[in-house]
Design brief:
disordered C terminus; globular
Length: about 300
Amino acid sequence: MKRLIPAVVLATLIGMFFVGSFVGALHAPEPHDVPVGVVGPPQALAQMAQKLDGKFELTGYADEAAAREALGGREVDAVLLPQQQKLVVASAASRSASTVITSVFTAAAPLTVEDAHPLPPGDQGGIAGMFFVIGLVVPGIAIGVAAGREKALPGIGAVVLAGVTAGLANAWLGDVVFGALPGAFLGLAGVSAAVVITLGLVVSGLVRLIGTAGAGLAGLLFVVIGVPASGGPLGARFIPEWYAAVGSFLPVGQGSAAIRNVVFFDGAALGMPLLVMAGWAAVGLTLTLSARSQVRGASFVG
């Protein structure tokens, strides 16, 4: 029994870390700098901004067409049209954001609300995207562990193959079977494959570099920290700002953003998500090609 005490302590600490990370990030959502476009004169914009106390970041637009283009391009999360007494939201970007924006602005003035980019019937709760990404993180880590035990080039080939097959299979489920992420099958499959390949390469490199502990480090970074730091179903604008800043540099949150933008916004604002994933993939590829495997029975190089 005494020999099991360290395991009990470790299990307790791991559980506390999970709860601390997830609950700490998501238990008290508070908006910060949520971008909202406003069509109107600069004077009215300045007066409105003073009343919002940093919760919303207002950007002025000359006309409705420009503001709606910004909404579709993921530059803002909503558009206020004061002269028409209308608020235009995009629940597909974040159900939480659209709900909070609607609540705040309709409380200040009577407004009609238009959802220009609604959630699909297959995901009225707006949570499918988060679980879809988690469903990509797990196979990414798993294939990375397996690849890290093999020679470098066959391992990389396995990661790429797993990314393509997992991307296609999960896109089929998310789009065709459940209709939760509909209408952009090839784009969804491509981004999904990129997420799996990115994580697989990083994990493969870590396993080769430091052994099986690399899988634990990857799980800590991409699951325990990466999932809540992405904002989960709330979005990054509703978790502590420092945590959202961490999440912006991790592939989980950026992969989630890329999936949402491909499916609901015609591929808008993909530059940063793809850049972050490419950077992580490059690090993983470098480690995989250069590190000597630390796994017992696989002490070869390359």
